[in-house]
Amino acid sequence: GEYISEELVSESMFLCTYGAYNDLIGTIQIPKDVREQYQKICTSEFREEMEKEWRIVDYCDSAVYLYGIVPVRKLEEICRHYKEDITETAIYALSEDWEGRLGEGRIQGEFLMEEQFLEGELYQMVRREQGDISYYIPEDREEFLGYGREFCQEPDEHTESFITFLRDRYRMEYAHALTDFYIIQSAIRANYEIPELMEILDGILSNNDEKLEGMKKRKEAEGQLNNLLNYTRVIRYRGHTRKEYLHMQSIGQGKK
Fold it and tell me: Closest by alpha carbon to 65, among 140, 143, 5?
């Protein structure tokens, strides 16, 4: 049969309308007459164009995750850094085709931004807070693209200890602890500080019939949350972690 990518199916009214997903064998089943029409339009040129569009969306999603807001011209510069032939013009053109939507991002004037920042021109406040901090642009392209594809940060040698803390102190299964890790991580990315994070953690533990009682337990929890604050990439610092930002400040670097 014909291979049809999941992305193409999800974005195609034609395929969503006339195709049916068979969950027993994990395939999209297409009637013969529809398949014949698809074969006419799905040329190698068409597939190449679709792949380029999805590549643009991948870069947009990663930029939105790391920076929250980024000038489209800066995104073109980032794409050039990774030797991608993605221009500012191509990004705007695709945005027009998709009614201003680019994955998790939206175009507003000269900026690509996460949708939440459109409310009440919140993006202007975010940009003021970011000031002249440089953009975090990893050398490894796959690292950069991974942030957008997952829209989170996988636990690493610096942050895995929080999951261990939840498992050891509160007898959580790994999957449960990992979910709670991502909840806290998302709040840190959104600029929450220790008091708000402690409230979230209190709620998480109460749902597990546990409590953060006693000064010793609360101090330990605060220490774990501070560690996550140090090693989580956040919008406030344009994708840098707090530890990276403070280091750049100490040596007079980190300005764009």
Answer: 143
First to last CA, the chain: 51
- Output the six-digit token pair for 124: 């202007």
Hey, what amino acid is at 136?
Y
Identity of the highest mean pLDDT range in 33-47, 49-63, 73-87, 204-218: 73-87
Contact (Cβ atoms closer than 8 angstroms) between residue 245 and residue 254 = yes
pLDDT in tens, 63-104: 999 999 999 999 999 999 999 999 999 999 999 988 878 889
Give the gyration radius of the chain's Cα atoms. 22
Give the amino acid at 56: I
- In the structure encoding, which two tokens stand for residue 170, read together? 């509160």
CA dihedral 164, 169, 174, 179 (to 10 degrees): -90
